[in-house]
TrEMBL record:
Occurrences of domain NAD(P)-binding (ranges): 5-303
Reaction(s) the record says it catalyses: dTDP-alpha-D-glucose = dTDP-4-dehydro-6-deoxy-alpha-D-glucose + H2O
Pfam families named in the record: GDP_Man_Dehyd (PF16363)
Keyword Lyase: yes
InterPro entries: dTDP_Gluc_deHydtase, NAD(P)-bd_dom, NAD(P)-bd_dom_sf
Protein name: dTDP-glucose 4,6-dehydratase
Highest taxon of source: Bacteria
Record family assignment: Belongs to the NAD(P)-dependent epimerase/dehydratase family. dTDP-glucose dehydratase subfamily.
EC number(s) reported in the record: 4.2.1.46
Keyword Coiled coil on entry: no
Annotated CDD domains: dTDP_GD_SDR_e (cd05246)
Source organism of the structure: Microbacterium trichothecenolyticum
GO molecular function, one term: dTDP-glucose 4,6-dehydratase activity
EC class of the enzyme, as a word: lyase
Amino acid sequence: MRRILVTGGAGFIGSNFVHHVLAHTDDHVTVLDKLTYAGNLASLEGLPVDRLDFVHGDIADAVLVDDLFSRVDAVVHYAAESHNDNSLHDPRPFVDTNIVGTYTLLEAARKHDRRLHHISTDEVYGDLELDDPARFTEQTPYNPSSPYSSTKAGSDLLVRAWVRSFGLRATISNCSNNYGPYQHIEKFIPRQITSVIRGIRPKLYGAGENVRDWIHADDHSSAVLTILDHGVVGETYLIGADGERSNKDVVELILGLMGRPADEYEHVTDRAGHDMRYAIDSTKLRTELDWAPSFGNFEEGLASTIAWYRDHEAWWAASKDGVEAFYASKGQ
Ligand code: NAD
Ligand code: TDX
């Protein structure tokens, strides 16, 4: 039985990965999570207790991390401060967790010679114009825009340096925008779904023309497991599911699926430095590691995500007023 340490496993994508691993392998999982505002133990409820341990702690705690690394075979590193809007408000936790935290994990992986997979984002590549036929590839130069994406870029570069300088057995993946169950309602899709449930109009930043390349979190998880099992050490893999949509299209789709008029939304103050378009070319992962997404249809994936938020109001209800008050204070 392989023992995997999953950092950030009480967050959105990390918890989806824990569910995925426990359903599809015999592996044992230890979750290390600080339970910031974004972590939620309820996201791990119902999983087999004999194959899952939870450790409450900080990835920047070198003593704790050293002990945990001595007891596992592999590490999948999701823990991060993940929200662009928060990084514009207070960048400091992004530096502490995304950079110093990742450094702390790399030093422990080096000491204990552990296989490590680092989770990153397509935002490290900056953005594309709407009319540019290009998509990001593993060769695209780094050009991050926000405090969030610059700290993720910094963490990627640390991983690359530890591979080259110390022979660390690490891989990196850069994924596009995820949607699905357990996503914090500060993020675009669950914010709008929970607003419609509460009778609040969805809020589009600026004109709403910005394009994101959507992938279901379960497809992200299957890709990460594929890379952990078959990826070549030192390599970077881009993960995406050809899901480009403008924000305006997504809001109109949500309203339609929830039985509301398609124009029942508001335009609000745009995000500072707002990236225009992200688009992933995942050819390398598909051809070299034979991975393919299962959620081929975005409308169906969105409909099941809407159903999940309707059915799990207890999971998100307590945070809704605070999230909306934070946005309202910024005119968003
Ligand atoms: P999230 O904010 O939902 O979850 C982050 C988790 O990390 C939370 O459980 C939080 O408590 C934990 N955490 C934060 N700081 C910590 C620390 N110092 N020590 C231990 N735990 C800590 O984020 P997410 O959307 O699930 O993103 C997970 C990872 O995937 C991040 O690395 C992010 O950059 C990356 N990513 C996200 C997306 C996306 O669309 N959300 C896309 C590509 C990549
Ligand atoms: O209310 C909103 N209205 C709106 O128009 C919110 C919250 C967002 N938006 C826009 C901003 C973006 O163009 O929707 C788009 C998506 O916004 P977010 O959900 O904040 O995601 P994004 O900034 O694209 O970053 C996400 O994908 C890459 C994740 O939060 C990152 O962690 C990941 O790295």
